């Protein structure tokens, strides 16, 4: 797949009722943010008393319907959703915002002629096609990464970043590939591309923890001595905690998990829940979809809720 060509697929034509809907503060995340990850969403902020809104609304709906599924439209009554309007910093209405991949990418204030509205929607529809292509390439790159083809996966992630420099999925994927290829220096440089607003993304936090572990390798020479201490006294919780950290450093993640699960099961409150907190740190470092994270969370849940 190459950027700039035709997208791999286009959205199927949707019924008019599916293309245009009223929403509110409670449904905004689902109707706009999440929906825009699949298809561009236009948000019309209006009010019943607003004269220009009555002029813009029908014209906007007409153009959206004519786009035949390339974009969707969500209508927000600012009188009934004042908190949302404040969060979006709506100063006057009508106000129109366009969202792609969960982010506002375009917009305008006031009533526009139908011709300008069409240009706005056509421009947005093109962004939607690019967004679809980006998601498809990201999926291809992740598939290559899962197959341990880190070299080719890294090339695809890097191509994505040339098009969308702030794509955290591509940034995190490239960092993981560079770590797998032993290029920790470039992995650090790539991680620095994460925009401050997205520093808290779970995938970013996970890859950051993995990189920190790679840059600060654990001395595993004491594993044998700690295992002996645990065998001599199974309830030596401090030894189990230290052993878990070393086992994780040696990439023995299942064994590391089991050491901490033992402590949690025996005495969850020990040392201000140190074992549970350490296990959660492991999950963050391994990533939410990692097989050991998933297995570890199941074990933790069975202990906590048994």
Automatic annotation (TrEMBL):
<feature type="domain" description="Thioredoxin">
    <location>
        <begin position="6"/>
        <end position="126"/>
    </location>
</feature>
<dbReference type="InterPro" id="IPR005746">
    <property type="entry name" value="Thioredoxin"/>
</dbReference>
<dbReference type="GO" id="GO:0006950">
    <property type="term" value="P:response to stress"/>
</dbReference>
<dbReference type="GO" id="GO:0045454">
    <property type="term" value="P:cell redox homeostasis"/>
</dbReference>
<comment type="similarity">
    <text>Belongs to the thioredoxin family.</text>
</comment>
<dbReference type="InterPro" id="IPR017937">
    <property type="entry name" value="Thioredoxin_CS"/>
</dbReference>
<keyword id="KW-0676">Redox-active center</keyword>
<dbReference type="Pfam" id="PF00085">
    <property type="entry name" value="Thioredoxin"/>
</dbReference>
<dbReference type="InterPro" id="IPR011990">
    <property type="entry name" value="TPR-like_helical_dom_sf"/>
</dbReference>
<dbReference type="InterPro" id="IPR013766">
    <property type="entry name" value="Thioredoxin_domain"/>
</dbReference>
<keyword id="KW-1015">Disulfide bond</keyword>
<keyword id="KW-0249">Electron transport</keyword>
<protein>
    <recommendedName>
        <fullName>Thioredoxin</fullName>
    </recommendedName>
</protein>
<dbReference type="InterPro" id="IPR036249">
    <property type="entry name" value="Thioredoxin-like_sf"/>
</dbReference>
<dbReference type="GO" id="GO:0005829">
    <property type="term" value="C:cytosol"/>
</dbReference>
<dbReference type="Pfam" id="PF14559">
    <property type="entry name" value="TPR_19"/>
</dbReference>
<dbReference type="Pfam" id="PF14561">
    <property type="entry name" value="TPR_20"/>
</dbReference>
<keyword id="KW-0813">Transport</keyword>
<dbReference type="GO" id="GO:0015035">
    <property type="term" value="F:protein-disulfide reductase activity"/>
</dbReference>
